[in-house]
Amino acid sequence: MQLTNKTDHYVAFKVKTTNPKQYCVRPNIGVVLPGSTCDVTVTMQAQESPPDMQCKDKFLVQSVAAENGATAQDINAAMVITLKLLIGFISTSLLHAYNFWLVLSYVHVLS
Question: Domain limits at 34?
Fold first, then answer.
């Protein structure tokens, strides 16, 4: 997943998952500088696909505009904007055809 900061401000982020034992997210917290990007790697641990190919696991990307020079430790929960990412399994044939493990679809959460 690539986070892009199209603003003129520092943006702090944190990535959470509903199933932390099944996914490794690195980095799961950080700051994206103005006009730059940050690559976040989501690695799924080995597991059996459910028979119906339905997955209830979710990711949450939280972000907040921060002061210049801010670090992730400077951010508090009250300042955060939330984005949920839903997970979907794909079949093995599609995996080989398109060379990816899972599909993330963006769902904006409006306050």
Answer: 2-108
Alpha-carbon 83 to chain mean position: 9
Burial of 12 (0-12, 13-18, 19+ CB in 10 A): buried
Average of per-residue pLDDT values in the chain: 75
pLDDT value for 41: 92
Rounded Cα gap, residues 99 and 97, in angstroms: 6
Residue 92, pLDDT > 60, answer no
Domain count, the chain: 1
Cα distance between residue 85 and residue 106, in whole Å: 5
pTM over 0.70: no
Q: What is the CATH number of the domain that holds 79?
A: 2.60.40.10
Spatial separation of the C-alpha atoms in residues 100 and 24, rounded to whole Å: 16
Pairing of the two strands 58-66 and 81-89 = antiparallel
